[in-house]
Amino acid sequence: MAITEENPGYKWVGTRPIRPDGLEKVTGKARFGADLVLPGMLYGKVVRSPHAHARIVSIDTSAAESMEGVKAVITGADFPDLAANGAHPSDIDVANNAIARDKVLYEGHVVAAVAAITREQAEAAAKAVAVTYEVLPHVLTVDEAMADNAPLLHEAMITKGVDPAPEEPSNIASKILHERGDLDQGFGEADAVVEREFSTKPVHQGYIEPHAAVADANSDGRAHIWCSSQGHFQMRAYTATVLGVSPGTLKVTAAEIGGGFGGKTVIYLEPLAVRLSQRAGRPVKLVMDRDEVFRATGPTSGTRIKVKMGVSKDGKITAAEVWMAYEAGAYAGSPVGAAGMTAIACYDIPNFVVEGYDVVCNKPRVAAYRAPGAPMAAFAVESVLDELARNIEMDPIDIRLANAAVEGTQASYGPKFPRIGFVETLEAIKEHPNYTAELGPNQGRGVAAGFWFNAGMMSSATVHVNENGTATVVTGSPDIGGSRQSMALMAAEELGIPYESIKPVVADTETVGFNDVTGGSRVTLATGAAVVDACRLIVEDLRGRAAKTWDVEVDQVEWVDGQAQHVDGAQPPLSLNDLAAKSGRTGGPISANASLNSRGVGAGFSTQLCDVEVDPETGVTRVVRYLTAQDAGRAISPDYVEGQMQGGVVQGIGWALNEEYIHDTEGVMENPSFLDYRMPVASDLPMIDCAIVEVPNPAHPYGVRGVGEVGIVPPMAAVGNAIHDAVDVRMTELPMSPIKVLEALNENDG
Amino acid sequence: MKYVAPSSVEEAASLLSSSPSAQVFAGATDVVPQIRAGRPAPDVLVDLKKIKELVALNSDGDKWTVGAATPTAYLTEDDAFSHEFPGLAEAAGLIGSDQIQNRSSLGGNLCNASPAADSVPAMVVNGVRAVVAGPNGTRVLDVSEVVTGPGQTALDDDEFIVEFEIDKMPSRSGDAYLRMIPRTEMDIAVVGAGARVTLADDGSIEQAVLALGAVAPTVVRIPDAEQALVGSTADEETLNAVAAAASEACDPIDDKRGTVEYRKQVAGVLAKRAVVIAIERAEQRNGTN
Amino acid sequence: MPRTHITTVINGDETEFLTEDSTSLLNALRDEVGLTGAKEGCGTGDCGACSILVDDRVNCACLMFAPEADGTVIVTVEGLADSGELHPLQQCFLEGAALQCGICTPGFLMAAKALLDKNPDPTETEIRYALAGNLCRCTGYDKIIRAVQEAAREMRGQ
């Protein structure tokens, strides 16, 4: 581990104990979304569009309604028409994506749902819902969607961000632009210029747990929802919007979540389950099949990106021009905005233009996926930078060091960076033995870097001290990768009691204050800060109680190692246990709440080193060695920091080599299974070596930076650069499948 | 859908005859995904795994018999079998994960009639025969005759495969099977190539059989490559001729798993590599072991 | 349609349940028997989240029809610990942080148990191939492989 600042004597922060929720998860007791069963519960099934783009002419539910065991059938007409109610456009999109009203915009778009006593009855009834469609012409890619006279998904969509606004509608939802300096001058100063065009396919988050929701509605309008999501407060808000009810009528309990990576920050099943439950008067469970997950949830954008960059002989980047178009899927909202902000954020570049377009097309609406938007842009920029380094014969780390953003650099997207650790990640790679490990025949080595903002946002926490001096730490942030351990470690550090004495809990929407989604790598940062705040309130309270007990001023009391100590040692110490046992005599139960809007996120940087071996006769690429260096600020829970780093890398390797959405000409997905949507399996990979860099975030009590996302930004370029090093072909399309690599090799030979 | 598990071949045959939409299965590793993907479920599903002789692996001196429903894991775990037919054992062992291996069978892999079935090229090069049971008793087919097209077999609706017969591997002979998949596991072959050679005393090739999978509607033999090999020592020129003949023998399609061009080119590569491995194995098999 | 009566031994206990013939063993275990440790990630045998042992062999419960379980001996993740004492694999997964979200963990534990039962000293490559039928999207497999290696060492008494 590369540590830039010594651990200031923490007892718990930075240790590797067993996670608090681990036992349930290795014994099968943990309850995930699909595991809940309620008395009288019905099984639901969703009816989905077989067409990529069609007008719904009619839906006949009568046959389904009369089938054995069927208790409810719903369609778009069972939900309020938000457009007619003048709702916010983004809310209308959320509602229409949950269930189509007039038009279906992608294969898999929901048109109806049923609930019946058994699964088999529900499946049969779903098949019996008769939908008549008028099929419309469709567009599947940004090229098709941006073409002149392209069929329109939304007849009234006028491109935002263009002045003056276009008069004609198009499939371009918005344009973004970042500019600085003078491009012509910058390219004029360059000794080497590389210009390349890249394309990437939509890829899915690939969480192993399909979406699942159980709803139990009461006749008075209230409903209880259990679902696996990355934010049950967000699920409550969206579901209330779609149903047209007050959020307070809904209670949402977070099930254990079986992976999300951004894809479970949006709603799909929850409003349907509530409406079905209301109609049937019984609880309803909805669970997606894997093919529904692929056809109708996630993915992230397919893209087309053009990059032109110039460098001087000494490796300084003189100019960068980036053009990017991102598929949004059926509704506006691709991550092109974040892509534009992150594309060149690693570097201090005097002259640049970054231009981006958010483009709708007839594919599922994209959802957040780990550093949304950044990986595709980094694939393009980091590939071009690799080529520039080769052209001027400069080491790939050195060229990045020559341009690296540091504290005080004006970020390409606006603000000045505070203390950041990009340089430290580059140095960590260079110092690691992998950087000089010997390469075999047909092997090559690639370097790439990545940046991600990380999010802060709102969190709440409550800490209760139990009567025996143990503590319960309550938050509302679903734990997707071990965050309960981080909460417990920070609480143990603050309260000075053993980690094992802390019970971290993820509470429902009625039991704890508001929490934004588990996303943006924000939970250990922001929810963690709320936990720290609440613990500090507890400590203040405890000092007061000790002072009262000893009849001294509170400033005579210190909190050390879980004990109230008199500054002069005039009194025997009072442990948390002692104080808790006597709480009735010192003011009642010991408890504190803290809520915050996070005070300062710490940007995340990652640099990665990939060694591949390419079979020159088949085009197959195997990753043989991999190293990732990432600035964690402070690794509260190093086990799970490494887990985030390794997991992000491997998702990136899958994106680099094999993962892609394949659609036929009718817009029907051809590979909606784990057999043909090829995520990495254990035998595809080596161990993923980690170098945790710790450059503390000055805005967090323990220096935490978000660690969940940036790890997925560099891998595609790292793999592509390694392939180039191995067999001298420059790959510009993802995935870099055996077919594409062999084509490129053939072209080189021919 | 009704599930039945007969305990004898006769009982299974009569069940198949009595219901027009009855279907036999062994591991269901293809049947279940197909039903989930929307293929109509049969009225009666006949489980062959409770018939003793269908789940058995035996050697009687002249030949091996493999029950049609025998999990492929039994083949890879049997040292004698996998030592004698390493190519066939490897091919069988490539059908999915360990979980799948405990269910998948040669009978199922063949009768599912996928052009990409891994065990089929390896069975074809080894001259494996299928014993087929039906209402009027049994008949024997070469494995190469069983599949007539994607999803189509030469079996009547009321017939099913009982077991496979494999003549013992002669001395100075060896087999191999290679497949190309984008990952290292869990994929359907984009190209598969099986080879078996027998060497003459002088080290030249006396017999060669080559077969390709996933490059045509059914498994294809490569007669031109086989002829080029016989009498040769598989020098570089001959191997290049093998590769060219393999590419030429392909009649592939473009689909989500591969392109025509890719399949043709890689078929040549794998055919060549499979021959080299088969020769190495043949050289190590002196005498009768 | 009348349901079929199935008798099995599950996690050491004789267990009976009723099922439709078309129901997967996975759904029967989860809905009828109440054992929700095995998960459905795909329903097509591609992810291994439903891995269980049937007569000592690892199987995807989603690929078995429930009636096939009649007369078999089944072990699910709920039966892996011995009267509350964790199996070395469970302990090593905990200590090695070999899980993040935990949805794939039951399947990995059962597949790893099947591996170590027949091969007590597997190489890293053997472990990776033996677990190739189990998808994990969180960990990148690194800590899972290490946990299996550690459990194997402990089980060999090293």
What features would you describe in this structure?
The complex is a heterotrimer of chains A (750), B (289) and C (158). Chain A is an alpha+beta fold and 750 residues long. Among the domains of chain A are: 394-454 and 601-749, 2-Layer Sandwich (Aldehyde Oxidoreductase, domain 4); 456-597, Aldehyde Oxidoreductase, domain 4. In chain A, the strands form 6 sheets. A 7-stranded mixed beta sheet of chain A has the order 4-6-2-13-10-11-12, sandwiched between helices. In chain A, strands 1-27-26-25-17 form a 5-stranded mixed beta sheet, with helices on both faces. A 5-stranded mixed beta sheet of chain A has the order 8-16-15-14-9. In chain A, α3 (89-98) packs across α7 and α14 packs parallel to α15 (523-550). The longest helix of chain A has 28 residues, at 523-550. In chain A, 61% of the residues are buried. Chain B is of the alpha+beta class. Chain B contains 12 helices and 14 strands. The longest helix of chain B has 25 residues, at 260-284. In chain B, 56% of the residues are buried. The model of chain B has no long low-confidence stretch (mean pLDDT 95). Chain C is an alpha+beta fold and 158 residues long. Chain C has 2 domains: 4-79, Beta-grasp domain (Ubiquitin-like (UB roll), Roll); 88-155, [2Fe-2S]-binding domain (DNA polymerase, domain 1, Orthogonal Bundle). Chain C is 33% helix and 16% strand. The termini of chain C are far apart. Chains in contact: A-B, A-C, B-C.
What order do the helices and strands come in, and which of them pair?
The complex is a heterotrimer of chains A (750), B (289) and C (158).
Chain A: E1 2-3, H1 22-27, E2 42-48, E3 54-60, H2 62-65, E4 70-75, H3 89-98, E5 103-104, E6 110-116, H4 119-128, E7 130-135, H5 142-146, E8 172-180, H6 183-188, E9 192-200, E10 212-217, E11 223-227, H7 232-243, E12 250-254, H8 270-280, E13 284-287, H9 290-296, E14 303-311, E15 317-329, H10 336-342, E16 352-360, H11 374-391, H12 396-403, H13 422-431, E17 443-452, E18 458-465, E19 471-475, H14 483-495, E20 502-506, H15 523-550, E21 557-560, E22 563-566, E23 574-575, H16 576-581, E24 591-597, E25 604-614, E26 621-631, H17 638-657, E27 688-694, H18 715-727, H19 738-749
Helix pairs in contact in A: 3-7, 10-11, 11-18, 14-15, 17-18
Chain B: E1 2-4, H1 9-18, E2 23-25, H2 31-36, E3 44-47, E4 57-59, E5 63-67, H3 72-77, H4 79-84, H5 86-93, H6 98-101, H7 106-111, H8 119-125, E6 129-134, E7 137-142, H9 143-146, E8 147-149, E9 152-153, E10 160-167, E11 173-180, E12 191-199, E13 205-213, E14 220-221, H10 223-229, H11 236-249, H12 260-284
Parallel strand pairs in B: 1-3, 2-3
Antiparallel strand pairs in B: 4-5, 5-10, 6-7, 6-10, 8-9, 11-12, 12-13, 13-14
Chain C: E1 4-10, E2 13-19, H1 25-33, E3 51-54, E4 57-60, E5 73-75, H2 88-95, H3 105-118, H4 124-130, H5 142-155
Parallel strand pairs in C: 1-5
Antiparallel strand pairs in C: 1-2, 3-4, 3-5
Helix pairs in contact in C: 2-5
